[in-house]
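User: Predict the structure for this protein chain, please.
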Amino acid sequence: MSILTLNQGTNHQYTPDGKDIEGAISLNNLSDVTITVPLLNNQILVYSTATNQWINTTTGNVTTLEELTDVVVTNVQTGDVIAWNNTTSKWENTANSTATTLVALTDVDITTPSNGQALVYNTANSEWENGTASVAVAIDDITDVTITGLTNGQVLQYNSTTSEWENSSTATSVALDNITDVTITSVANGQSLQYNSTTSKWENANIVAPLVDGGTY
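Assistant: Here is the predicted structure, written as structure tokens:
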């Protein structure tokens, strides 16, 4: 059974271990509570592991985003949103990335668009800009093709020096003698092409009929 004693001088009651029961009526009289004055309206008690005390603070009296320690609001503009920044470990205001039109995109620059224009990428400013699209409608419009003095029967031939396709009068093989594995020499009527394994060529030659043993009649 606990016995309370009365101190006539203070008129407070004390527990056997000397604790002032009536004196602990206010928070600041508790041994694990530290109240710092002046007290402000709407302050709360927050436990501090550094001092092992409950202390009064205004942390809970937040009325704006800027008061939060992990929020940075700078030059806020209409339509801004709060987005997390991994680099600063803060929530920061930034332009709304939910674009609903092309002109709202950060890498698009549209100036006085006109009918039939297209978006063309500009490497100088790393942006997409409205302009007249250069669509190839003829072979000569292609950047790696050069047509000069075009004549009937010409073909496109690749030029490794200029890295371009150019028109040329170089004839394609339209005769047997133009084929690289065929050699025609003094062709005569009735000759045929015969393969010569020594030269690895097909060559014109007379047809030699095989001898046939007719037997005894």
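Residues 1-7 have pLDDT under 50 and may be disordered.
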